[in-house]
């Protein structure tokens, strides 16, 4: 965090020496690294700054589950598929939201953070909301479908939610009991059908506790869920979750897992809203812990892909929608076990390709634009950049940097 007592200029209080994290702890990136402030900024880490393999692995595995879940969502006539779908939908977005909160801990309303919020969240939302609206109009032969930025298409609700959560981060870091307050807001949202669909505010409220939880977590919390005992306990928990999901197929509406509707909109009495919100939040938290328990902490073949998950997230739904428009998901082969397996592998492979470096390079101009032309440069930041550049040149000449 920035020390407001510290004057800017050449005479700055030296930082304390960095401490080596405990063995196995997924340590956060340094506070000055933009990656801790914007989970959506997935550019490769600068030279000398190590990315955390644990979180990159978690992000990649979560985006694979998102893509697979969206593919399964088109063929829910099969009871086994819907059971797996319900289990995945209980924790895959909560895991994403927890990670987003964790890397938003240093966010405040300084100009550089606002710039990253605009370029990493607002601009991609506007670009892709427009693109998906046009795809709906022309790809689905729907000339009446207009472009609106208030009604997010499909999966783009997450960017709206992330914007609201990030802007309110200083509030959650200031109040005394942020987690109970966020849970209370989620419960109140479930009894308020008048909230409507604008900016998916129901989801903003009902997923809010996971973001606030991420703000409160520390590296040691992730170390605890990585213990062998937790991994072993997670196996019966996942088995029990599958049984409950199978039992709930004819008895519980999927809308409770989407967190996008109030209780009355789901045909239930208003008082069931808070009850179901608390129950689903508890189940989601338990399965999210099980998910983190099995995320590898070492570098894997897919670790580097964790830097591009926002690309996979934004792009994969084009294929899902194209399949719907063309009737591809109605093919008889997808009603067979081998067809379902093939669809699962295909969805995982496609989103993997969409997270690769060539895709990032091709679309960085709209997913992570710099947009220096759109912002005023802070005089203090410009002076520090000049100082840093000067010190680099001095080191390059082999001279000692003046203290």
Walk me through this protein's architecture.
35% of the residues are buried. The chain is 59% helix and 0% strand. It has 16 helices and no strands. With 403 residues, it is mainly alpha-helical. The protein has one domain. The protein starts with 52 loop residues before the first helix and ends in a 7-residue tail after the last helix. Residues 32-50 have a biased composition (Basic and acidic residues).
Describe this protein with a few key phrases.
403 residues, mainly alpha, disordered N terminus
Task: Give a short overview.
The chain has 403 residues and is mainly alpha-helical. It has helices at residues 53-72, 79-102, 111-139, 157-167, 169-174, 178-189, 201-206, 208-216, 219-225, 228-248, 255-258, 272-293, 309-326, 337-354, 357-367, 379-396. The model is unreliable at 1-48 (pLDDT under 50).
Q: SSE order in H/E notation?
A: HHHHHHHHHHHHHHHH
Overall outline:
globular
Main sheet specs: none
Percentage of residues in DSSP E strands = under 5%
Number of strands: 0
Oligomer: single chain
Classify the helix fraction into a percent range.
55-70%
Number of helices: 16
